[in-house]
């Protein structure tokens, strides 16, 4: 299976949200990394066939998805960033209702609802009203509804926003588990969500894809740029002015700064192994998170 995005642009009035994005995706997890306003959600909505591009096209195995119409949408599972759920429905009834909207037969519906509830760890909670669920449980209901039609392409936009660390780990593991025979696109600005599960990371900035590489390849590009220094507290403003400073940690009565710099920040600076948070800082330090 091959999903090709060919010079896709999207305008909203005078604003260019996507600028000739060209990508080629195959089976596996792809992380789309970008700050708010980078075009992540717009790209996701186009790939989910919710929105049409202003120019360019998307092809699935050589076929234009606009011309495929419902044949393409039957292959899609989509979890938008903000999804409305009928909170007076039980999880089971809600999924049965959505399955009916997706055209599943009654026999297939019962089978798939049980299957996806088990997959997301909510089978024992299936008789409880969704309104009583935690934020993490609601997101799991969201991914369950996206999986009802056994999609070949799963698109999830900011799935862990607002979740506690335990739920975020659960969600990442779930996406990794279900990616075996699917294209999974995970849009996020939380770098730890994709660090260990993405086969490639697409870095999207101001509507352009500026990099598409495996995580370790991206990190290799900044391996000589990450440093830590221990300074006095009054020195912090100086380093923040001259370097991209990430983490600030207290070390006894001094402060340890982790920063990006092309050259050694001072004589005592130590080189550090880069991670995806450093990568995010490298690309998006000047942008609003």
UniProtKB/TrEMBL annotation:
Q: Name one GO molecular function term.
A: ATP hydrolysis activity
**Alphabetical keyword list:** ATP-binding, Nucleotide-binding, Transport
Would I find Lyase among this entry's keywords? no
Please indicate if the UniProt record lists Nucleotide-binding as a keyword: yes
Tell me which SUPFAM superfamilies the record gives: P-loop containing nucleoside triphosphate hydrolases (SSF52540)
Give all residue intervals belonging to the ABC transporter domain.
Answer: 3-231
Under InterPro entries, the record lists:
AAA+_ATPase, ABC_transporter-like_ATP-bd, ABC_transporter-like_CS, P-loop_NTPase
Q: Which PANTHER family match?
A: ABC TRANSPORTER, ATP-BINDING PROTEIN (PTHR43335)
Q: Which family does it belong to?
A: Belongs to the ABC transporter superfamily.
**The protein's name:** ABC transporter ATP-binding protein
- State the organism of origin: Bacillus mesophilus
């Amino acid at each position: 299976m091959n999903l090709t995005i060919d010079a896709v642009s999207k305008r909203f009035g005078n604003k260019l949200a996507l600028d000739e994005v060209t990508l080629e995706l195959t089976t596996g997890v792809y992380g789309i990394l970008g700050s708010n306003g980078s075009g992540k959600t717009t790209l996701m909505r186009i790939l989910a066939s919710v929105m049409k591009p202003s120019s360019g096209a998307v092809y699935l195995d050589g076929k234009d998805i606009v011309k495929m119409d419902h044949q393409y949408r039957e292959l899609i599972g989509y979890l938008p960033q903000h999804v409305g759920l009928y909170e007076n429905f039980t999880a089971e009834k809600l999924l049965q209702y959505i399955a009916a909207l997706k055209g599943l037969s009654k026999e297939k519906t019962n089978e798939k609802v049980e299957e996806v509830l088990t997959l997301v760890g909510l089978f024992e909670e299936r008789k409880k009203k969704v309104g009583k669920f935690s934020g993490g449980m609601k997101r799991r209901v969201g991914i369950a509804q996206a999986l009802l039609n056994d999609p070949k392409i799963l698109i999830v936009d900011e799935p862990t926003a607002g979740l506690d660390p335990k739920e975020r780990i659960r969600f990442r593991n779930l996406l990794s588990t279900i990616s075996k025979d699917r294209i999974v696109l995970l849009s996020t600005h939380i770098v730890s969500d994709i660090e260990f599960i993405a086969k490639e990371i697409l870095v999207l900035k101001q509507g352009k894809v500026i990099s598409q590489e495996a995580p370790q390849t991206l990190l290799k590009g900044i391996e000589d740029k990450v440093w830590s220094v221990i300074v006095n507290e009054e020195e912090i403003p100086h380093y923040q002015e001259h370097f991209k400073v990430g983490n600030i940690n207290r070390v006894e009565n001094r402060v340890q700064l982790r920063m990006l710099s092309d050259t050694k920040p001072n004589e005592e600076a130590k080189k550090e192994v880069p991670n995806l948070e450093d990568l995010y800082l490298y690309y998006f330090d000047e942008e609003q998170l």
